[in-house]
Design brief:
The chain contains six helices and two strands; from the N terminus they run E-E-H-H-H-H-H-H. With 107 residues, it is mostly helical. It has a single domain, classed as 5' to 3' exonuclease, C-terminal subdomain (DNA polymerase, domain 1), CATH 1.10.150. Strands 1-2 form a two-stranded antiparallel ribbon.
Length: 107
């Protein structure tokens, strides 16, 4: 049975990832150190392309679902994911984008 997170089959993510040649390792992205990369690996995300396909908001929700008793600060995780995808430090993604992301998490 395929693994699915929020309607995204991990097998499809991996196939799409193989088709893309320039995918970077998570730790090569801004804001993603070994701790966050390890957490991402635990929910089936191993590359930049996989993170891009799932998106910052769904990725944050996946972590919260996997670890319901832990707190995942939006600045440390959600904004870091968005910054990694836009090649910016998490604090440089802008106040408007932060509000938008926070609104998506709060739904």
């Amino acid at each position: 049975m395929p693994v699915e997170f929020y309607g995204v089959h991990i097998s499809l993510i991996r196939r799409a990832n193989k088709a893309m040649e320039q995918s970077r390792k998570l730790t090569e992205l801004k804001n993603i150190g070994t701790k966050i990369a390890g957490r991402l690996n635990e929910v089936g995300i191993f590359s930049e392309d996989e993170l891009r396909i799932v998106g910052a908001v769904k990725t944050h929700k996946m972590l919260k679902e996997k670890y319901p008793n832990e707190i995942f600060p939006v600045c440390y995780y959600l904004y870091s994911f968005e910054g990694a995808l836009s090649d910016k430090h998490w604090d440089d993604i802008g106040a408007e984008k932060k509000r938008e992301l926070k609104g998506e998490i709060d739904k």
